[in-house]
Amino acid sequence: MRTLNINTKATIKPVAKDNERSPDYRVTANGVEFGAGWSKAAKDTGAEYLSLKLDDPSFTGPVYATLVQGEKGEHKLIWSR
Asked: Which letter, b or e, does each residue of 63-74 get, where b requires 16 or more Cβ atoms within 10 Å of its Cβ?
């Protein structure tokens, strides 16, 4: 994950769900959790993606992002606040 202020390797790992609203994934960097993810599918195409919420005290607010797989197998993180 690289921004103007952040340059770190983040890991997105699946976790067991406690209930239907709990996240499917946890996002960590350097052993610290800073986000969660939910598996989703696009209504029109059925394409699968992850809906992520990332947060850290250094952020001005939570970052909501979508992680999609690109055409060449790479992943793209599309975010907004």
From this structure: bebbbeeeeeee
Residue ranges making up the domain that contains 22 = 10-80
66 within some domain:
yes
Sign of torsion over alpha carbons 28, 31, 33, 38 = positive
Picking from 34, 11, 13, the residue whose alpha carbon sits closest to that of residue 24 is: 13
Q: Is residue 1, in this structure, part of any structural domain at all?
A: no
> pTM for the whole thing?
0.85
Q: How many domains does the chain have?
A: 1
pLDDT (tens digit per residue) in 42-65: 999 988 999 999 998 888 889 999
